[in-house]
Amino acid sequence: MARPKSENKRDAIVAAAIEVIAAQGLSAPTATIANEAGIANGSLFIYFPTKTDLLNAVYVALKVEMSAAALDGLNVEQDVRQQLFLTWSNWLRWAATFPKKRRALALLGVSHEISPQSRAAGYQAMAGAMEVLERCRSDGPMRDSEIGFVASLVNALAEATIDFLVIDPKNADQHRIAGFEAMWRMLA
Q: What are the residue boundaries of the HTH tetR-type domain, all occurrences included (predicted)?
């Protein structure tokens, strides 16, 4: 009879994969990930039958974590601009606080290894943030544009803003606010 899988060990593998992917990219060997997790390489495959399965699990885990961080403290009683500002600020804080997770997610986001099901799960994880975005653009200049395109524009603006938060931390608040104002003008 097979031993039950340990959730702690699975989490350790995902955390190790984030570290290794951020440092070495998506071609990093599973042996390196297993070593970072403190397990035998063969044990990794008990939890994730293929490297692709692992990459997909990491992608979804990061999307869920990023979304939860972005929506932390969201008050639907506030006006939509305040909701968007909170979501924006939380998202930037998460990305600046966890640069390895940001890098791993960026690499996974453009990988052909990520399945349509995982992309859909990632999109679903971001549903709350997307609802705020939808409400913001409903009467603005981007109202007739595909939401995926709008989200890509917002993401590009966020990435540029995050880069400046990281390279110029003493002016982080100014960059965060300027990035938000640019996004707001684009949406509303």
A: 7-66
